[in-house]
Design a protein that fits this description.
The complex is a heterodimer of chains A (351) and B (604). Chain A has 351 residues and is α/β, with parallel strands linked by helices. Chain A has one domain: Rossmann fold, CATH 3.40.50. Helices cover 30% and strands 20% of the residues of chain A. Chain A is built from twelve helices and twelve strands. In chain A, helix 3 packs parallel to helix 5 and helix 6 runs antiparallel to helix 9. By secondary structure, chain B is of the alpha/beta class. The two termini of chain B are 28 Å apart. The chains are: A alpha/beta (351), B alpha/beta (604). At the A-B interface, strand 2, helix 3, helix 5, helix 11 and helix 12 of A face strand 7, helix 7, strand 9, helix 9 and helix 10 of B. Strand 2 of chain A pairs parallel with strand 15 of chain B, so a sheet runs across the interface.
Chain lengths: 351, 604
């Protein structure tokens, strides 16, 4: 089997973004996932978000692990370098790449198996380091490529297509992220493109580790009655708590919002994320209250979505490590090498 | 046997770890070095922080032999727990010094050695009041005692104490006082000096005492590495300590305070490998230091780097395996695993340093080779090289050095029409071109994947396309053999049909064994291999002898297996000589093993 290249069609009067690119400039290879897979909608949302943010595709880096979701990095932005790494180990590769060149925009795409079972350790530590990247967790509660085993995200009582119900507690990526210090925590649904695109844009612009847990149903192995990750179940229990809009630095930022309902969060690039609280009393800048809200929703059938938590004050990894403004991989060797004279001086220490 | 004689003897100090003895032992050794007399130190320590036995062995040898001799001429027994063992280990005719505050009749059970008592504890307890300083000062007291026994130059010692406490000068008088306690007691009460003493020489000019891990870390600084990732593991930790120390000293922009390096402590070795690979893929020179247990964990990522052709340097500072093994003891037990790490058909470039100087040089080599061959490259050092102080020529640097970045396609080349495909062998040298993320808006992007790919870098499940890539990988690996540090051949003065072949830290013991066996009429040539894939000279060398002793520090004769696997040598010609008890190899062991084999052969 080989990959398919999508034909590029440029229509007349096709809308362009601020850098003159059209939406299809953000396309990649043709998807080989099952028809109706939630992941394809997420891929489309990622392409759309990059397009709307007018990020040049070649200045982005796509990283992924192993699994259905991880395959999707080939399906958008073919002019961006991609790295389809080792199962559950994408965060380490992304972090190393980030250290080498922090000038690029990093997006990681993973699934619930890749992130919450084999890769749980790496995910947690990338969050602790506050690596400046957006991590998309396409969550369908099931292992697709190996045909239908439960993942660690499966809810208690959710049934498998063949066989019984899951009895073990699920790992909730948002609760996990809040507990280990992630600085941008969101949940969404592949079926809500409007919310998803906005969250992706905000996540890409956030300086630090942003995670979006996206319920993304698996039509082949986990879309049946009894599954809590099906389209039907998700549509039914889907609940929006906070709405997020990214406003770029150049745009005029309206200051007057109705009190108590909106909250502008200023970003490092000068842009703003405008948060519109749909639930009264929800404060997405307070980790403890976000945590309790997430836990509460976990007790019920409700699927709490939106930008659940944001913290723009904690330093990201490169800032904390005092890395130069220019990328490490662009520093000339002459600047890195101390030279022969210095060596002679150093050797005195050992004489 | 070697010594004891003037400037030729072995001192072993038995201590309890966590008592500050390391700095006293370092002082003792450095003082000998500063008297111009070659000396090497081997630290035998437990996997523990405080309270267990530790030994420090110094071999003074003005002929410059660096291996262990296997003899102990003067034992400084400062740990009552190990008195019995320490007493038994002294060579006949040797000396033992112990703390006679609590006299031990059991110390007198050997009539072939001389036992000397110095009441160290009593003296320091009478002189110092603070509990911790009593412990520390006992160390200085035995340095003073040893000084009197072997004619150590006290002016040198006093100068070093002043330097040692230059920033805490109020500690100088008490340390000096402790030195004098030991020195005066021996002077007044014990027959001295011993029959073997020190005498000033000028044989350490231009030399330094440095450990291999420090040298490797410095090599990474000079080689231009910018990203180092690691998970702490004995005995490799000090590689990163050194890189960090010299980066902080030499790589911080004085104006902006910006760090021209990134050091990331990983959550485990898997992550450390991934971090280094991510950085290497993105165009930074990167490395990760670890030991065998870490290599085991990194296996999957190493296969990924091999198949995706991602440059990264792995330092394996070997310790005793398998499993946790003996973390603070030395072996050469990862020869096989580093050669073929990871599942599927994988073969790697491995460098075998023999001393700290080569650790430095090969760090730079490895960074070059990784980028030139777009592959993971291993530097296979060991605990003995990595953590012990060796006397080597002072490290130097050639300012004309230019890093070999390999084939990285630039934006300009792409603009000029260079047609980029990630795994295409354009030049016929088996090495493809790579681009770095962010290079060009419309040309040059590719998708890096550990899954099947064809020469254009695209996904494939087509058998022929798959084979085309992995066959090139094998050719690429094999072509590296002439680019690695060449083997070192040491010829005996006489024509001989017998030889030794070895790698790494066995070097000192082997050279000495060759010299001593030569005096008995058994002449041996010696090749020290420095890289894998093996250079053509390795095969040529083996063809020229009837018997080749493959000396190595592991149970399974891994180097021998690798030679049999990768060359056409006749298996029967390769005689395994293996030492794997965890302490550094001694010339005595090599001599005895080879003599024994020769004797058996003669009688058979």
């Amino acid at each position: 089997m080989v990959s398919f290249t999508k034909p590029k069609i440029r229509r007349k009067n096709e809308p362009t973004n601020d850098i003159g690119l059209i939406r299809s400039d953000y396309d990649g290879a043709m998807s080989t996932l099952c028809a109706g897979c939630g992941h394809d909608s997420v891929t489309a949302a990622m392409g759309r978000a990059f397009f709307e943010l007018a990020i040049e595709p070649y200045r982005a880096v796509k990283v992924s692990g192993i699994g259905c979701s991880s395959k999707t990095t080939t399906y958008f932005m073919s002019q961006a370098h991609g790295n389809n790494t080792v199962h559950g180990r994408m965060p380490a590769v992304a972090t190393g790449a980030m250290a080498a060149n922090a000038d690029l925009t990093y997006i990681g795409v993973s699934g619930d198996g890749d992130s919450l079972s084999i890769g749980l350790g790496q995910l947690v530590h990338a969050m602790r380091r506050n690596v400046n990247m957006l991590y998309m967790l396409e969550n369908n509660g099931v292992y697709g490529l190996t045909k239908g085993q439960f993942s660690a995200a499966a809810d208690i009582g959710s049934t498998a297509k063949k066989g019984g119900a899951n009895e073990m507690a699920p790992i909730d990526p948002c609760a996990l992220a809040l507990s280990v210090g992630a600085t941008f925590v969101a949940r969404s649904f592949s079926g809500d493109k409007e919310q998803l695109v906005n969250l992706i844009k905000a996540g890409l612009k956030h300086k630090g580790f942003a995670i979006i847990d996206v319920t993304s149903p698996c039509v082949s192995f986990n879309d049946h009655k009894g599954s809590t990750k099906s389209y039907e179940h998700t549509f039914k229990y889907y609940h929006k708590a906070v709405h997020a809009d990214y406003v770029p630095p150049s745009a005029e930022i309206r200051a007057s919002y109705e009190d108590g309902e909106t909250m502008p969060i200023e970003l490092h690039d000068g842009g703003v994320i405008n948060l519109r609280k749909l639930d009264n009393g929800y404060d997405p800048t307070d980790r403890a209250s976000a945590f309790s809200k997430v836990l509460e929703s976990g007790q019920s059938d409700e699927i709490l979505t939106g930008l659940l938590y944001i913290d723009e004050t904690t330093k990201d990894m490169t800032t904390r490590k005092n890395l130069p403004k220019r990328a490490l991989n662009t520093i000339d060797y002459a600047e890195l090498n101390p030279g022969a004279n210095k060596m002679a001086g150093l050797m005195k220490e050992f004489g | 046997m070697s010594g004891p004689a003037l400037n030729d003897f072995v001192i072993r100090v038995a201590n309890v770890n966590g008592t500050g003895s390391a700095s006293a032992n370092g002082l003792l050794m450095k003082a000998i070095f500063r008297m111009g007399i070659p000396v090497v130190g081997k630290n035998v320590f437990p996997s523990n922080i405080q309270g267990l036995p530790t030994w420090y062995e110094m071999r003074v040898n003005e002929d410059g032999y660096t291996g262990r001799s296997g003899e102990i001429h003067l034992m400084i027994a400062m740990n009552a727990e190990t008195y019995a063992k320490d007493l038994a280990s002294v060579s006949p005719g040797g000396y033992l010094l112990y703390d006679s505050t609590w006299p031990r009749p059991s110390m007198l059970q050997r009539d072939d050695i001389t036992v000397m008592g110095v009441p160290f504890s009593q003296m320091v307890n009478d002189t110092f009041t603070h509990a911790r300083s009593r412990i520390l000062m006992k160390n200085m007291a035995y340095v003073g005692a040893v000084a009197a026994l072997i004619n150590l130059d006290m002016d040198v010692v006093r100068k070093m104490v002043e330097d040692m406490f230059a920033s805490k000068t109020k500690l100088i008088p008490s340390n000096m006082q402790a030195l004098e306690l030991g020195l005066n007691y021996v002077t007044d009460n014990i027959d001295h000096p011993l029959p073997f003493t020190l005498e000033k020489r000028d044989k350490t000019n231009g030399k330094v005492m440095i450990d291999g891990n420090t040298a490797a870390g410095l090599g990474c600084v000079y080689g231009g590495a910018t990203v180092g990732a690691w998970y702490p593991i004995t005995p490799s930790t000090s590689v990163m300590d050194s890189f960090s120390k010299y980066c902080h000293k030499l790589r911080i922009d004085p104006e902006t305070g910006e760090h021209k390096f990134a050091i990331i402590q990983a959550e485990d070795e898997l992550a450390a490998a991934g971090l280094a690979i991510g950085a290497g893929w993105n165009g930074a020179r990167s490395f990760t230091p670890t030991s065998g247990a870490g290599i085991s964990l990194m296996n999957e990522f190493i296969g990924f780097a091999y198949y995706t052709e991602t440059p990264t340097v792995f330092f394996d500072i070997q310790r005793v395996g398998p499993s946790t093994g003996m973390p603070t003891r030395t072996q050469q037990c990862d020869i096989t695993t580093t050669a073929y790490c990871s599942h599927g058909d994988t073969k790697h470039i491995v460098l075998y340093p023999a001393d700290p100087k080569e650790c430095f040089e090969m760090s730079v080599n490895a960074l070059d080779l990784a980028e030139r061959f777009q592959a993971p490259v291993f530097v296979l050092s060991d605990l003995d090289i990595g953590m012990n102080d060796w006397m080597i020529d002072a490290l130097t640097w050639d300012d004309n050095y230019v890093p070999d970045r390999g084939k990285i396609v630039t934006r300009e080349q792409l603009e000029d029409g260079f047609e980029f495909f990630r795994y295409l062998d354009v030049d016929g040298d088996h090495i493809p071109y790579r681009t770095l993320p962010g290079t060009h808006p419309t040309k040059g992007a590719y998708f890096n994947r550990g899954s099947g790919h064809n020469k254009y870098g695209r996904y494939t499940e087509d058998g022929e396309e798959y084979k085309e890539v992995v066959d090139r990988l094998a050719d690429k690996w094999f072509s590296a053999r002439s680019h690695l540090p060449a083997p070192v051949i040491r010829k005996s003065a006489h024509k001989t049909k017998a030889a030794i072949l070895a790698i790494g830290s066995s070097d000192g013991a082997i050279i000495e064994a060759c010299d001593r066996l030569g005096k008995t009429g058994l002449h041996l040539d010696y090749m020290r291999v420095r890289g894998f894939p093996f250079a053509d000279e390795v095969e040529d060398f083996m063809a020229a002898y009837d018997t080749i002793y493959v000396v190595e520090q592991n149970r399974d004769a891994q180097l021998r297996s690798l030679l049999i696997n990768e060359t056409n040598v006749l298996k029967a010609k390769l005689i395994p000589v293996t030492y794997y008890a965890g302490d550094p190899l001694s010339y005595k062991f090599v001599m005895e093993a080879i003599s024994e084999h020769t004797a058996i052969r003669k009688t058979a």
